[in-house]
Amino acid sequence: MGGLLAAAALSKTFRSVLVLERDILPATATARKCVPQARHVHALLASGQAAMDDLLPGFVDQLLELGAIAGDALGDIRWVVDGHRLAGGISGVPGILASRDLIEWHVRQRVQALPNVRILDRSDVTGLIADGNAVTGVSVQHRSGGPPTEVVPADFVVDSSGRSSQSLAWLGRLGFTPPRESQLAVDVTYATRHFRLDASRLDGDSGIGMAPGPSSPRSGFMGIQEDGNWIVTLAGYGDDVPPLDPDGFLDFARSFPTPDIYDALATAQPLGDGVRYRIPTTIRHHYSADDLPSNYVPFADAICSFNPIYGQGMSVAAVEATILRNCLQSTTNLPRQFLREANRCIDAAWNLTVDNDLRLPAVPGRRSVRVRFANAYASRLDRAAAVDPVVGSAFLRVTHLLDRPRKLLRPSTVLRVLLADRPGTH
Ligand SMILES: Cc1cc2nc3c(=O)[nH]c(=O)nc-3n(C[C@H](O)[C@H](O)[C@H](O)COP(=O)(O)OP(=O)(O)OC[C@H]3O[C@@H](n4cnc5c(N)ncnc54)[C@H](O)[C@@H]3O)c2cc1C
Questions:
Q1: Residues near 175 by Cβ (< 8 Å), separated by ≥ 6?
Q2: What is the pTM of this model?
Q3: Of the N and C termini of the chain, which has fewer Cβ atoms inside 10 Å?
Q4: 227 alpha carbon to ligand 1 midpoint, in Å?
Q5: Nearest 5°: phi and psi at 411?
Q6: In the chain, how many domains are there?
Q7: Has residue 146 got a pLDDT over 90?
């Protein structure tokens, strides 16, 4: 996903852009082997929708034509945050429901249609070729005919090979110092199943989300997909692993503080088998331009891989792609400028999720004064959003990465939180 979006950005400046992908890319919107996470719920945040539309004009309208479901992120999706059901209302934050397979396929179709972009699958990048402080190309192993190995020359290289990126090893071999790393041992396990169900059980809502907090650390999301069936992903921290078998899956859903997901699933028909995914840690590499070749940038999950329950990865990748495009048009020291601006977006997303994860006793880590303050306020905000949709909308604008978290500390919002969360209102 990041590689395709980066290619769209690079195509504005470079004569020719080549995307090298190790997987076999399907011709239709179906699963592929090297992105096993695609079998789980993939939220596309409002910030990601806007960035994709900016890079690929008309993208969102076309996604809707392909069957994605549009709605309001508060008005059409029922949210329960740490046990508090958010007051309904129109937030103005666009929510889109579609499978990761469809979103990625649509991005790929659009990028493939760009006249100066070529996508080559079954092609495994095995290392970097450099001359002094600059990369001159990459070595590639092909499995699709032609020469089995070759060096592909390049004026500029973006590493968007995901969480398991080999950039650290490749750059180390070229003599570059490895970056500092932040990690949080979240130990989250996902379990996902698909269902056919009577949508009238949801009173017209197209999704239900259970977001975790200290009094209710389990999370889950169910949403309608482009084929009319429903995807349900449940998640637990540490030893709290959601079962995959139909009865155990339903029991986990029954344990949520409100019965919304359980009630919707009670008479639903399970489709196929369930799948699991475990995320032991979230990882952020603090790359510095001083320790990178002058024409090389890491990108998306290769820089930072978030806790997926907050649904940020694709959207951060899309925002990074708009930053990359803008930097290419205006700067000579590209890695420095790109990392500076990308880090602003990554900071906001990373702090939001790390702070929330540190509310949960199961997640190990130091709770600084800032984190404790932020989390005490978050608990009041969750309660306030249960009675005041304006607070809920402000919260969703932040979680969709449209506004910075500090906006929740504006006097007008703080006042609403204090008024809504006074004794006797719950
Ligand atoms: C369980 C789970 C759920 C998630 N849910 C969400 C969500 O709700 N919303 C959201 O926005 N994000 C979600 N994410 C994150 C999201 O999947 C990623 O952030 C997003 O895909 C961007 O990642 P990327 O492009 O860097 O890597 P990926 O999408 O993982 O792509 C990396 C690509 O690089 C290829 N590759 C790897 N090494 C090589 C090599 N050496 N040579 C050639 N090709 C190579 C791989 O085959 C793959 O196609 C989730 C992640 C997980 C694990």
A1: none
A2: 0.97
A3: C
A4: 23
A5: -50, -40
A6: 3
A7: no
Pocket of ligand 1 (CB under 6 A): 1-3, 20-23, 34-35, 37, 40-43, 124-125, 160-162, 190, 277, 279, 300-302, 308, 311-315, 317
CA distance 161 to 299: 8
pLDDT above 90: residue 21: yes
- Whether residue 176 is found in the same domain as residue 217: no
The band of 305, judged by pLDDT with boundaries at 50, 70 and 90, is very high
> For residue range 52-95, what is the model confidence (pLDDT) as tens digits?
999 999 999 999 999 999 999 999 999 999 999 999 999 999 99
User: Ligand 1: which atom is nearest the Cα of residue 140?
Assistant: 42
Task: Output the CA 351–ligand 1 centroid distance in Å.
Answer: 20
Ligand 1 atom having least distance to the Cα of 35: 30
How remote is the CA of residue 198 from the centroid of ligand 1, in Å? 32
Give the range of the structural domain holding residue 412, as residue numbers without chain letter: 376-420
Q: Are residues 139 and 21 in the same domain?
A: yes
- Whether residues 298 and 207 share a domain: the answer is no
- Residue 152 near residue 20 (C-beta atoms within 8 A): yes
Task: Indicate which atom in ligand 1 lies nearest the CA of residue 2.
Answer: 25
